[in-house]
Amino acid sequence: MGKRIIYGLLLLLLLLPSIRAEEQRGEFHLKNGIKVIYRRIEPSQIGSLGLFIRGGSLNLNQELMGLEELTLKLMLKGSKKFPKERLEGELNRMGTRFSTDSRYDYSRLSMTFLERYFDRSLEIFSDCVMEPTFDLKELELLKGKLVAGLKRKYANPDDMVWYKANETLMKGHPYINYQEGTPETIGKFTREDLLQYKAKIINAGQVFLVYVGRVDKEDLQKKLNRSFGKIPQAVYNPPPLPPFTDGKTEIRIADDPGLPTAYIAGKFAAPPPSHPDFPALWVGMRLLSTNLDLSLRTKHALTYATWSFATNYKRPWGGVYISTSKPNEAIRLIYSEIEGMKKDPPPADELRNQITRYITLFYLRNETAESQVQNLGQAEISYGDWRYNYRWVEKLRKVTPEDVRRVMRKYFTYLKLGIYTDSQKMPIQRELFLSFGS
Question: Is residue 217 in some structural domain?
Answer without folding.
Answer: yes
